[in-house]
Amino acid sequence: MDSGMGSNTNRITGFASGMNIDQTVSDLMRAERQPLIKMEQEQMQMQYKMEDYREMNREYRSFSTSIFDNMFMRSSLSAKQTSSSNESLVSASAASDAQSGTFTVSDVTQLAEAASVQSSSSITGGSGGNVDPEASLADQFDDYNEGSTIDFGITTYNENGEAEKKEFSFEGSDSLNDVLSEVNRSDAGVSAFYDQQTGNISVTRSETGVFNEGGNEMAFEGDFLTNQLNLNSFADTEYRGAQNAEFTLNGIETNRRSNTFTENGIEITLNGTSAENGNSASLQVSPDTEGIKETVMNFVDEYNSLIEKTNDKLSEERDREYPPLTDDQRSEMSDEEISQWEEKSQSGYLRSDDILSNATTSMRRSLYDTVNTGGSFDQLTEIGITTTSNYQDGGKLEVDEDQLEQAISQDAESVYQLFASDGENAEDKGLARRLREQVDQTVDNISERAGGPNTLDPSQFTIGREMNQMDDEISDFERRMTRTENRYYDQFTRMEQAIADANQQAQQIQQQLGGMGMM
């Protein structure tokens, strides 16, 4: 608030009294405004506290998201690893729900192949030379002109052996490349290619394997395909039929349409035949102990980091001798002095805070109750995770990595359930799930007090309402200061006027006395 607040154009200077009225009023108002400075500092302290709360809320939200993304996902805590004794014959990868065990693939007599057909002869245009794939069909084939409509159909077969026909329509102004691109982009299930060097077209079924038992895998209809592109005959020299992969799996002779297929959550890929790559391969599926351990260790590290940050806030010193700086104070200090002052004035606002204190207590409690896993482990300590013995750590966790690895190898599913199990009753919920509930409750409690990232209206949280109330008090006080300043000026104005009147009277008396002396 400057000294001109509520200025009055009728104010006079200290001409009569010789006083600097503006400076005198300014000095008086500086004393009057001391309560206002304290209110503004108090409001700034509310701002600091709100920012500290929101900083911690971001930490808790981030941890909650990490729990969801990692500890609830089977792909993180139930990951499987596979090994093959003969990668050149068979390789594999396992989904998280795959059963651990050994699988044997042997006697791979043939790999799956896709059906394909090649034009029976080179494609020639009206000039007798090979077709230019960029030129219009009308310029290449005598049977078409620019306005011609060219229709044809391609039939393939689905996994149930049912015919599915895809129809196409082009104009004479389109090019061969336009035709092939459209066919390849469509869901006809084929891939077409034109070799300009030889002038031949080849069409290959997109999927390997036999879908039309006893018949061709593709059929072409329409003059353009059969006569112009010479896909008119499936003679042995132009057509290569599809075949299924044939092999033995765990002693059972079987076949698949694709060389990559899934059995019991294991994706198996046949890389060659037994004649060329050895008769058999043994596939071993086991828990990815190292990967699961890394997930658990990351969880512990993030938990410990959150506990440390929370405890730091709870124990941070609050130095009340360093209130927020006023503008006048800043103007008299160096940048380094301001920085050092603000470091002290902005610390300690969450010291011994009830929300954060309750959070640490509830989080610790949530990790040490038993869980109905139905497996080998129902407590965190049983897989090698305990609270550190140093009380100054404030409840941090430490891990016996050897015991954790052993637990994962022994019963990875139980380790997963220990963290991520879900159920209506508390004892059926995994430790990470319980912990996340406590963390989310803390987020809600902080948001209720200090607002969240999407809270725009200050009246929706406690500190915001307090700051609004302080705004009102500051506005009221400023109005009072305006009235006070005006009152001071009014008083000095009257004083100046009285002095001026007195001076005038004295001057008149002096003049009168002087006149009498001359008589």
UniProtKB/TrEMBL annotation:
Residues covered by the Flagellar hook-associated protein 2 C-terminal domain: 242-503
Region ranges (Disordered): 310-347
Subcellular location: Secreted; Bacterial flagellum
Compositionally biased residues, Basic and acidic residues: 310-333
Residue ranges of domain Flagellar hook-associated protein 2 N-terminal in the record: 17-114
Keyword field contains Coiled coil: yes
Coiled coil region boundaries: 467-512
Keywords: Bacterial flagellum, Cell projection, Cilium, Coiled coil, Flagellum, Secreted
Family, per entry: Belongs to the FliD family.
Subunit structure: Homopentamer.
The protein's role, per its UniProt record: Required for morphogenesis and for the elongation of the flagellar filament by facilitating polymerization of the flagellin monomers at the tip of growing filament. Forms a capping structure, which prevents flagellin subunits (transported through the central channel of the flagellum) from leaking out without polymerization at the distal end.
Family annotation (NCBIfam families): PRK07737.1
This protein's name: Flagellar hook-associated protein 2
Biological source species: Salibacterium lacus
UniProt lineage: Bacteria, Bacillati, Bacillota, Bacilli, Bacillales
